[in-house]
């Protein structure tokens, strides 16, 4: 029982750390008003990397051994652990899925940033079709918050491109 208590203490510390990580990951993002859509992809890539690292740690053999010992001891801390493990898995899946969908827009980021307004407008129908596909098929990214943020960033990029074009011309 002494070993079990020590392991439970360790797991409770992990639970507290993971909860803190989840809370921080859900806080509002502070972004500049004029950033483009590539920042959205970068944000989700970074989030995916963070959650994948955390998942790798949770799935490590060391952690698995400790959890199996606590399972054998019928520890009450396992309920909290399993819930958190599930929350981390969902967040990791969300980030991975969002990266996959946002990568379908990646081919438009160059023309949006570097083209003339006329050339840029040639890409808008395909871009909007891709955004519509993301909205219709993504299990996570199809919220009004995500779509509004993405469309705002696309618009920002178009405005910045037009400003640059006007200043150079």
Automatic annotation (TrEMBL):
Pfam families: DHC_N1. Residues 5-167 form the Dynein heavy chain tail domain. One of its GO terms (cellular component) is axonemal dynein complex. Signal peptide: none annotated. One of its GO terms (molecular function) is dynein light intermediate chain binding. It comes from the Eukaryota. InterPro entries: DHC (IPR026983), Dynein_heavy_tail (IPR013594). GO terms for biological process: microtubule-based movement. This is DYH5 protein. It comes from Chionis minor (Black-faced sheathbill).
């Amino acid at each position: 029982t002494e070993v079990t208590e020590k392991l439970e203490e360790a797991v409770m510390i992990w639970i507290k750390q993971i909860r803190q990580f989840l809370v921080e990951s859900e806080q509002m993002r502070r972004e500049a008003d004029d950033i483009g859509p590539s920042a959205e992809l970068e944000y989700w890539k970074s989030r995916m990397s963070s959650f994948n690292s955390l998942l790798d740690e949770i799935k490590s053999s060391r952690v698995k051994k400790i959890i199996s010992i606590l399972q054998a001891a019928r520890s009450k801390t396992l309920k909290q652990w399993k819930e958190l493990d599930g929350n981390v898995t969902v967040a990791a899946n969300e980030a991975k899925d969002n990266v996959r969908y946002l990568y379908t827009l990646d081919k438009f980021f160059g023309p949006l940033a570097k083209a003339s307004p006329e050339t840029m407008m040639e890409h808008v129908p395909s871009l909007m079709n891709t955004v519509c596909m993301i909205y219709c098929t993504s299990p996570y990214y199809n919220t009004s918050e995500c779509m509004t943020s993405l469309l705002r960033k696309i618009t920002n990029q178009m405005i910045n491109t037009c400003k640059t074009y006007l200043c150079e011309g």
